Amino acid sequence: MDLYRKIILTRGVRAICLTGAVLLVSAPLKPTGAQEGPESRDDLPETFFEYDARLTAPAVEPGPYSDSPDGYGMLLAQNSAESDGMDVGDVQLGNVRDLTGFSGIRWGSAYSEVQRALEAVATSSTSEEQVEIINAERNKFILVRRNGILYRYNFYKTPYEVQILNDHTLSMDEFDQQEGLLFHVKVIMPFIASGLVKRQLLAIYGRNQRSTFDEDDKNGADIWALNGGFIFLWYEPYRNRPFTRTLDYLNAELAQRIMTEYADYFDAREKLLLQKVLLQ
Predict the structure, then answer these.
(1) Distances (CA, A) of 242 to 37, 70, 84, 211
(2) Contact by Cβ (8 Å): 107, 176
(3) Average pLDDT for residues 81-107, to the nearest whole number?
């Protein structure tokens, strides 16, 4: 089964903390009957984001985003509650077919490498952008506010219980020295008419390959399946129009690895016991 199908069938993308590692599992879409509008956060649990911004990043004057075609700060000034939500207008379709990372940082980059890159932008005296590191937990995530938009960089390293199946001599000290690898970036913005966000993605990556968008309840996602990863544009209903406040950029290779190791994690104790029996 295609990786994107596994993700969609498990109803979305969510990262959870499990024995010090970030594992990819499912995130439910808004359940039937959920309250519409910005106050409904059923699909964004506090334990995942671990911050109290309540998804209300201020609509600051956006910077130039000269280094990042994926910057969404510019959309804040264009946003209007009077929009029908889906109108993308006339747009010249882009032809970028690769998703090697996010905003100049490649998938699989070590936590310390990403941290240094973000700190350099945040402390630069010449940068015209407003960048602030809000929160971070080593080898798990870095939460950044950039021009009024929140970006959560998520990292993964194979859990100790899984690694020891292949390396029985691995110590906890050696495990602790390993770094998490960047596999996922979640973009969190104030409610923006979905058409404005989709227009920007269309101009870069062309048409999305798949969609679970439901015209009746204005819920679901558009999916760009690119070389190296996926982009999920999530829809939420507000006043009977589709709006967006989250996007997911996901590395395909590490996502597949996480899904495999997630299953191994729960069987690790039994597998290790079986190995010991077979080796006796």
Answers:
(1) 10, 21, 8, 14
(2) no
(3) 79
